[in-house]
Amino acid sequence: MQPFDSRVRKEAYISVPYPFILGNNVAGTVAAVGAEVKDFKVGDRVVSDTPTYLTLEAKWGGWQKFVLSRAAITTKIGNADFDQAIAVPFALSTAVGALQIYLGMERPDESKRTTFEKEKVLIWGAGTSVGGYAIQYAKSVGYTVIATGNPSGAARLQNLGASHVLDYKSPDIESQLRELGPFKFLMTASGDPASQKALANLLQPIGGKFVSTLGGKVELPSNVERIYESFEAASQKPEHKEYAKWWFEDYLPKAIQGAVEPAPIVKRSGGLGAIQAAGDDVLGKNAKEKIVINPQE
Q: What is the value of pTM for the model shown?
């Protein structure tokens, strides 16, 4: 269950046709393949990022018992657990897509890690799934990562790679961050207006840009660019074909097999009938872990 899906269902976050089948992040066993598919066969265990929201065609919707997707945006997961595997792609691709494609962060390369260790990255809202993966990605490239989050989760964020974890509710949070900066890359994984304004303030007086997982009407200085896109869908766009090949064939398989620490999950029973309540919990912040539902139940 992704917050994005839940917002579309409950808040009409984006315009979709009606009736429509939501959901685009799925895991399962291949039941059939098209005549031109060469890299997958019946029985393969996979995760897939269906083009539901890119095409706005209901046939690609993930909230159904049998899901249609494309080979180019599907990855084999070997013997990895389905529940753990499905918790990785959406949030991880949001983090990596935002940092790499839209901010220009490099790809992990062990031979170049020491090149970036003196430069810093700020991840605001690091306690979210996207935030946790953003920490891991930036750290894997070689950057020093500064994070904000809830103090109760600070130990986990440090284990993921954050050098410092600051309480985002602290009244002098911006002053604390200025002392730790400057930052080459800035991201708000929570996306709320307060975080966007804080990052804009940190970019003063020169200005600059940051990525945000949410948009909205937020008044920001004219010398600051907020980048808000469907970061997760970047791999499906023709202009990012080379990135998509790296993502689906190299980085994502390694991540699922253990190269990254997966976000905590909780399994919900009830199959498709449990989706609405689970979505409400996600939006109401009653779910501290990623909610996983098996539509076959």
A: 0.90
